[in-house]
Each structure stands twice: as structure tokens, then as C-alpha cells.
Amino acid sequence: MSEAVTPEPFGVGLPLDTQVSRPRAGSVLLEVDGEIDTLTAARLQAGLDEALDAARSEGSGVVVDLSGVTFLASSGLAVLIGGARRVAGFGARLRLVAASRAVTRPLQVTGADALFDTFDDVASALAAAALDVAPPPGVAPPSGEVGR
Amino acid sequence: MSDAETLDGMSTVEVRTSATAALIPTIRAVASDLAARADFDLDAISDLRMAVDEACATLVDAAEPTSVLQCRFLVRPERIRVHAEVEAAKADTVLSTDTFGWRVLQTLADEVEVLHEAATEGRRATVGIRLDKSAGDVPR
């Protein structure tokens, strides 16, 4: 046998990118791109924590955009379910944008889809999230450029 | 059943990697490709890809650090059987099946089974998972 080598992290899998933004008043958007598995679930957790902390302190609704996710393993589902529970703790629902089979199938086959409000596109999810909370005083409600 | 465990001249593919999570994306891509070529429906392709990922992740967690992860795909009419195996971290390593990931695996596959083999002379103990997935929701 050859000598024991410490396996180097080897970037075969696509990296997972997360980005938090506030595309409109009253909502925090977490965009996720890449593959969510045991290697990258921690990065999803960090992004989700950041988004939920921001939403909590700003009194905003949260949307998690999974449009760019090409694989979702149980480790990622567990993170999303944890997020749904946390949001349920402050009386809201976690909103997911999930259009591709890579995301919708894992949600459906595990029954986890019942824990989320799922949307086909970001605009409708944001419109729904904004209804969660009254706009802060002094901020004009957004005009009808988004949603349907 | 035993004949299905050998390279029998039918459509059998074996992938061997280091038992590291970083290489599981490669294995699940092979699973997905084989299912697509075997005319699995789109949900079944997605399920198999996820099931193989789940099985491999479970095994990597239980593997001896320098182990090989051996993953054999037996492509049959209307179904694929997957047999994945690693050398166990310890002689008494047992796969835990009371996890969320295991429940998901059971949901995704038609059948799933844990395989433990005790160490023999010149061979470490192994842990494995065998799973079966059919091509789609065909009446059986």
C-alpha cells in the first residue's frame, strides 16, 4: 500500500454561492447558486442565517431564491427545514423560489414542500413576502412594478 | 442475485474513488448519466442521483480515511442496482440508519439495504449500501 496521504479538498463539485440583498423594501432576498450537498450545506446555513438575522432585525419577509441550485441533498434540505422552523417561530413562512426539478423533486419526495411557500419566480415571491409586514413608517409602499 | 454482483458482460459500470466527500459529485453524475441513458423518467433520474449521493455520503462518514469508495452500477432493463462499499473506519463500525439522510434514502430508492462484512485475513471490515431504483412509475 502507498503511504497515507491527507486528501486535499478537490474542487470537483461546483462551489456554492450565496448572496443576501434587499431588492425592495420589506423583503430580504437570499440568492443561492450551485450544488447543495454535505460539502456545501454549511455555506447555505451561513447565508440563510445572515438572511434570517437581517429579516428579523429589519422586520422584513424572507425569500430564498433556489433558481440557480442544480442539486439538493438531504443535508441541504435539513438546513432549509431548520430555516422554515426558525421563521415559523416568528409567525411567518419561509418563501422559496424553486422552479427546476433539481430542487422541486427533493422537496416533493420528502414531503418537505409542505413547510414552505414555493414560487416559480422571484418577483411573485418578493411580492408575497412584502405582504408579511407593514412597511416601516416613512417608507412609501413600492408601486406596482413587481408581482401580479 | 449473486450473478448480478459480478461484472457479467451486461451493462455494469464500476467507479472507484478515494472515500472523500469531494468526489461524490463525480459519482452522482455517473448515476445520473446512466439513468438517463437507461431511459429513466426525469423524476427517477433525479431520485437516483440523490439516492447515490446520500448512500455515498453515509459511507464516506463511516470510512477508513485512506479507503477506496467503490460504487458499482448494474444497469438492467427498467432498473438500476447500485452497490457502494468502503473499508470501515473501525472493525465494529455500523451505519446509523436513524438519521434524516437515511429516511430520505429509503424514500428515494425502491429498496435499500445495509451490508456489513467482518474483517477477514488480509481484508478490513467493510460497510456497504445496496439500493435498487426502477426506471419510473411503471405498474409492477
Automatic annotation (TrEMBL), chain A:
Ranges that cross the membrane: none
STAS domain span: 26-129
Recorded superkingdom: Bacteria
InterPro entries, A to Z: Anti-sigma_ant, STAS_dom, STAS_dom_sf
Gene3D superfamilies in UniProt: STAS domain (3.30.750.24)
One Pfam family matching this protein: STAS
Assigned protein family: Belongs to the anti-sigma-factor antagonist family.
Protein name as annotated: Anti-sigma factor antagonist
TrEMBL record, chain B:
Domain of life according to the entry: Bacteria
A GO molecular-function descriptor: ATP binding
Pfam families: HATPase_c_2
Coiled coil location: none
Alphabetical UniProt keywords: ATP-binding, Nucleotide-binding
Domain named Histidine kinase/HSP90-like ATPase: residues: 18-116
Protein name: ATP-binding protein
